[in-house]
Design a protein that fits this description.
The structure holds two protein chains of two kinds. Chain A is an alpha+beta fold. Chain A is built from 19 helices and 40 strands. In chain A, helix 5 packs across helix 6 and helix 6 runs antiparallel to helix 9. Chain B is of the alpha+beta class. Chain B contains twelve helices and nine strands. In chain B, strand 6 and strand 7 form a beta hairpin. In chain B, helix 2 runs antiparallel to helix 4. Classes of the chains: A alpha+beta, B alpha+beta. Chains A and B meet through helix 2, helix 7, helix 10, helix 12 and helix 13 of A and helix 5, strand 1, strand 2, helix 8 and strand 4 of B.
Chain lengths: ~800, ~350
């Protein structure tokens, strides 16, 4: 919202030497955010009034003229193509250095000395559109330059001064105004400034209604229209409003139209109350305020044709709607050049209805912006006073011929009791009663003190929901006292023991383990999944939520598993990387398992914290990819200090390869899967090359230990020997079986410590149905250093057992 | 004889010092000190000497043998070190072999930094629920029934759950604040907690707008708190994030769930508050809203607002990370692009 400082000064006498940056700062801190302060005259630097003394033809161009122009200090030659140039005319001259828009278009450019078709020109004579004044000096014919002859300003006067445009404009962030309907006009801002700076606010005297005939107004819906003042004004005509009023409207962003419309806009910008003038001749019988009928038609002032519904409130005559209440007038009732008598509407419409209607027809107006914030019905009085004053000024011959004020249920101002000791405890400071009374009084509050209590009556303009409880009063006192005048108070500490949140920590530990220990990169994806990945990986959409308005038609499913998005991320990154590993944690949600953890009636679906990871290789070395992924998973419980995993094959995940898959268990509970993504599914997700190992884990099912779980073993006193041996086994003999069998020898020899996997080999150096497995047998005694013979004896026991139980053979050439 | 010994000893020394490797050294040692070594051989002439000379000469030979033998050993050490020495052409400018690189998402990093800071002040960490109801997102937060935020089209409602009573309408949470009431309802006061999380808005995306983004909220609720207690929280957050003390101002702002409400600005770190293009020449940057919980919010949480009060702050994590690193497109955070993510370690 644009606020003119000159306009403000009509209501509050700000000191002439007021520091505007200070004012903007104070207003920002206490009331609303001032986004910028601009000097209106800055746009018109080096643009002055010039008087043409002579118009001469241009020797080289038929359409151009050479004007001798008096610019106050001297006569200059200016080349101009204007069609309405005349000697004696006062014009706007953009001297070198001025900023103008060529032909009223594009970005402003700086004027310099120039030669036009061989003739030197001192700047240019401007059309209104070239210096941003089109709204004040509209023209139809191209090449019309502004005629300033009517202005009493000698040649050389800066144009801003000549037109009375010396003003400062405050740009206020509308967002910061949403809860303050009282600030949507200059009078409201003036009131805040008066309170801030302890200055008097000019009173707007109530209008004394003359004894005239009652105007028939039928308000059929008092809930949606709590108040309706109708004033019939006769002896009017359509003419331009005074230039001063036009510029006031123009500087706050309104286009002057004619005196009748300008008055209504001026009133709105002054006190924040929209008003509307109907041409009485276009009203059949009288005005009716009612709900629209379904499908009832209305042609708006802006040409929009609406088919209304019952929720819309309309201003109608006895025949048809003539306007959309609180939103916009209709075409039928418009003020026309022939208008002589108007019905002035000063009405209050309830906010929610206006907002709904405006939203429904996408028709936002200045009136909507104000009504939707909740204007108090008392404000109609201010608007009436000001309107009648302006009509009187602009139309001395005007006559009020009928009047009515439908206002059956007067607004009740809010009353609030505040205890001073409560106020002190919340503010951390005692503010003197006199200060409170003075500041609150200036904002329109009535304050009475009684012992520790403060009785407050809220002014009508803050009583529409804005101020209703004592916390509101605390805010009013604090902001007027100045937020910066309260010192930060330390938060008192009460030690009730350390924060211990194992469930929170386990997620962080798991993530840090993957990122820092396993060298994986955390990613984030959206909570919706793309159709192709859902089809490829989940293959069943039962129990998956869908969005009512998805971001795209193929992204409607809500994340029920982390894998589809992970697969998509793999496909994305394969464009740039061959080998990588990524992971994500997020909520996985399913349309099932409802419970009400927080509120009795709020049933929420199953939501679990999930973790998923992907290891990607570009080539076909699935074994090492598998082992890398499996190693990371196997070690995770160790580093995150939780109950260990068991990996075994029970139920193959639908997305997994037929062979390479494992289920992850904690005890008897399945908590996840670790498997190779089936090639077909991978291709459907856009993973064109290589292989992907996927891991999914339900974080909520993990069992964290209450502290670290490392255990201590005495260091071996006597050496432990690693003895590597390669043996041939049938291809389908699982390693775990080999190891278990080997360890089964522990009963026979105490020196057998452990059996570890070194590598396996399948290929041309071993028979087709065999694989070679290299195992490392760890051998050592507690009480002595073993001899070579003793070590070999242990190896022999193990080898024999493997041969007997699993048919192992020594690997020979 | 004596002269010969001296000659041989000097010659031996010279050869030992010139030995290029251990084999050579061994050969030299044998040639002089071995059983048939030239110095050992000298001893054979011993019987031919006068008895008084004999003793003297014998001692001299032994001394020479010992000396050479020591020299051999020290030369052996020397040669060992020499052979282990790294060639002088070793290039110390070749790049190091990097440990396998992984990292948390930059927003997670920021979130954990803040968690650590708040934990050190005794705050708990709470994770609510991504799915919420209109009741929890608006009713408990004092949004009036006709508030435009409810009517607006920017909430992601779930199909089949998008009509009916407020507690039956389900959506992806449009903001975090509703979680605070959930926490309060399931815990005992006083409260001191943070609740970071992702929120969702159905809007057109561009470099500054995203459909999913992270917020970080903190709430403290206790008896007899003043509203300025919030300044301490805010300063803690900002000094943690920016690693320096940051000036903070609280100014009037309006949000339904707080009363009074504030817009919280931090002094522009780029210009030090003098005014620059980053802060739009005002010296301050709007960083977060905050305020005292509205009495109706405390009531929704089951507290008596006359007894309890508190302070909220709500930080846009994405924006904070963008400011910290100069990231100019918010969409990068959800891009999954490792070229972006791997920049943050």
């Amino acid at each position: 919202m644009k606020v003119s400082l000159n306009w403000i000064k009509e209501y509050v006498a700000l000191p002439e030497d007021m520091d505007l940056s200070r004012l903007a700062y104070d207003l920002t801190m206490a009331t609303v955010e001032v986004e910028g302060v601009t000097n209106l005259a800055d746009e018109f630097q080096n643009i002055i009034v010039g008087q043409i003394t002579e118009v001469l033809p241009h020797p080289n161009a038929e359409k151009l003229r050479i004007c001798k122009v008096d610019i106050g200090t001297e006569i200059k030659d200016i080349v101009c193509g204007g069609s309405n140039l005349e000697a004696g005319m006062k014009v706007a001259v953009a001297c070198p250095g001025a900023m103008v828009r060529w032909h009223g278009e594009g970005e402003p450019v700086k004027i310099g000395l120039a030669k036009l078709r061989g003739v030197e020109s001192y700047g240019m004579i401007c059309a209104s559109s070239e210096i941003g004044l089109f709204d004040l000096f509209p023209f139809e014919e191209e090449a019309t330059i502004v005629d300033l002859s009517a202005f009493d300003a000698p040649a050389g006067t800066p144009i801003a001064e000549a037109l009375g445009l010396s003003d400062m404009i405050l740009e206020i962030d509308n967002k910061s105004l949403t809860n303050r309907p009282d600030l949507w006009g200059h009078y409201g801002i003036a009131r805040e400034l008066a309170a801030l700076y302890d200055l008097p606010l000019k009173e707007i005297k109530p209008y004394e209604v003359p004894a005239v005939a009652p105007l028939t107004i039928e308000v059929a819906d008092l809930e949606r229209c709590p108040r309706y003042i109708g004033v019939e004004l006769s002896n009017l005509s359509v003419k331009a409003s005074p230039f001063a009023m036009q510029t006031m409207l123009w500087r706050v962003g309104q286009r002057p139209i004619n005196a009748l419309v300008d008055i209504t806009n001026y009133v709105m910008m002054a006190v924040g109350q929209p008003t509307h003038a109907f041409d009485k001749d276009n009203i059949k019988d009288h005005i009716v305020v009612r709900r629209a009928k379904n499908e009832e038609e209305l042609l708006l002032l802006n040409g929009k044709e609406l088919a209304l519904c019952e929720d819309d409130l309309v201003i109608a005559d006895t025949q048809s709607p003539v306007g959309l209440a609180g939103v916009m007038g209709g075409a039928k009732d418009s003020v026309l050049p022939t208008t002589k008598t108007v019905i002035l509407e000063i009405a209050n419409f309830a906010a929610p209805g206006v907002r709904r209607t405006a939203l429904r027809y996408d028709n936002r107006t200045e009136a909507v912006s104000r009504y939707e914030k909740g204007i108090d019905p008392e404000r109609c009085d201010l608007a009436l006073s000001l309107s009648m004053e302006l009509f009187g000024e602009l139309y001395p011959e005007v006559e009020v011929t009928a009047f009515s004020d439908t206002y059956p249920k007067k607004l009740e101002c809010a009353n609030i009791e505040v205890s001073l000791s409560w106020l002190e405890s919340r503010l951390g400071k005692r503010i003197p009663n006199e200060t409170i009374a003075k500041k609150m009084g200036a904002m329109g509050y009535t304050v009475a003190f009684e012992g520790d209590m403060m009785h407050i009556t809220v002014p009508s303009w803050r009583s529409t929901g804005d101020v209703s409880i004592k916390a509101d009063i605390m805010e009013e006192v604090a902001r007027m006292y100045g937020y910066e005048n309260f010192e930060a108070t330390p938060i008192t500490t009460s030690f009730e023991g350390a924060i211990n949140q194992l469930d929170v920590d386990i997620e962080r530990k798991a993530k840090e383990y993957l990122a820092i220990r396993c060298g994986m990169q955390e990613i984030f994806t959206y909570p919706w999944m793309s159709d192709e990945c859902v089809d490829a990986i989940l293959q069943d959409t039962t129990g998956i939520f869908q969005l009512s308005t998805p971001p795209s038609p193929t992204e409607r499913y809500i994340r029920s598993s982390l894998l589809p998005n992970l697969a998509k991320a793999v496909a994305h990154n394969q464009r740039y990387f061959d080998e990588f590993a990524i992971f994500e944690t997020a909520m996985v949600i399913r349309d099932e398992g409802y419970s009400a953890p927080y509120y009795e009636n709020e049933l929420l679906p199953s939501q679990k914290r999930g973790l998923a990871a992907a290891w990607v290789c570009g080539g076909d070395d699935v074994t090492s990819l598998f082992r890398r992924a499996k190693g990371a998973v196997e070690l995770m419980p160790r580093y995150t200090h939780m109950e260990g995993f068991t990996l075994k094959q029970e139920t193959k995940p639908v997305w997994a390869d037929d062979v390479v898959w494992l289920n992850v268990f904690v005890g008897d509970v399945q908590v996840g899967n670790l498997a190779l993504l089936a090639k077909k599914a991978a291709l459907s997700c856009g993973i064109k090359t290589g292989y992907v190992m996927l891991f999914e884990l339900d974080l909520d099912e993990l069992v964290p230990f209450t502290s670290r779980t490392n255990s201590f073993e005495h260091l071996a006193e006597f050496p432990i020997t690693d003895y590597d041996i390669s043996l041939l086994f049938d291809r389908n003999t699982p390693w775990e079986k080999i190891r278990a069998t080997a360890l089964g020898c522990k009963g026979q020899t105490k020196a057998l410590r452990d059996v570890l996997f070194v590598e396996e080999y399948k290929g041309k150096h071993v028979p087709e149905d065999k694989k070679s497995v290299t195992l490392r047998i760890q051998i050592g005694a507690d009480d002595k250093t073993l001899t070579t013979e003793e070590i070999e004896a242990v190896v022999n026991i193990v080898t024999k057992k493997l041969t007997k139980n699993l048919g192992a053979e020594a690997r020979t050439k | 004889m004596k002269e010969k010994l001296q000659l041989l000893a000097a010659e031996g020394k010279e050869k030992i010092l010139a030995a290029k490797n251990e084999v050579e050294l061994q050969e030299i040692k044998a040639a002089y000190l071995g059983k048939k070594g030239s110095i050992t051989e000298l001893m054979k002439g011993l019987p031919g000497l006068a008895p008084e000379e004999r003793r003297e000469f014998g001692q001299a030979v032994n001394a020479a043998k010992n000396e050479l033998s020591d020299l051999v050993e020290s030369q052996r050490e020397e040669l060992k070190l020499k052979s282990a020495a790294i060639p002088a052409d070793f290039d110390v400018t070749v790049p190091g072999t990097l440990p396998s690189g992984g990292a948390l998402h930059p927003i997670t990093q920021m979130c954990y930094d803040l968690n650590d800071a708040f934990r050190s002040m005794g705050f708990e960490i709470f994770a609510g629920s991504d799915i919420t109801s209109e009741y929890s997102a608006f009713d408990t937060l004092n949004f009036p029934p006709a508030h435009p935020a409810r009517e607006s089209m920017d909430t992601y409602w779930l199909e089949g759950h998008d009509t009916g009573d407020a507690d039956k309408k389900l959506c992806l949470r449009p903001h975090l604040t509703g979680e605070s009431v959930r926490y309060m309802r399931t815990h005992k006061p006083p409260y001191r907690f943070v609740y970071p999380g992702r929120v969702y808005r159905n809007e057109t995306t561009d470099a500054r707008h995203e459909r999913a983004f992270f917020q970080y909220e903190a709430l403290i609720v206790d008896k007899n708190l003043t509203f300025t207690a919030g300044k301490v929280m805010i300063k803690s957050i900002l000094s943690k994030v920016f690693g320096q003390d940051v000036p903070v101002r609280m100014r009037a702002g309006f949000f339904p769930f707080v009363e009074p409400g504030f817009e919280i600005d931090m002094g522009c770190l780029v210009c030090g508050g003098k005014g620059c293009s980053v802060c739009k020449h005002v010296g301050w940057i709007e960083i977060m809203p905050g305020g005292t919980p509205h009495p109706n919010v405390l009531r929704a949480a089951g507290l008596d607002p006359d007894e309890y009060t508190g302070f909220y702050v709500n930080i846009g994590l994405d924006r904070l990370v963008m400011m910290r690193y100069g990231v100019d497109d918010v969409r990068l955070f959800h891009s999954t692009d490792l070229r972006f993510l791997s920049q943050f370690r």
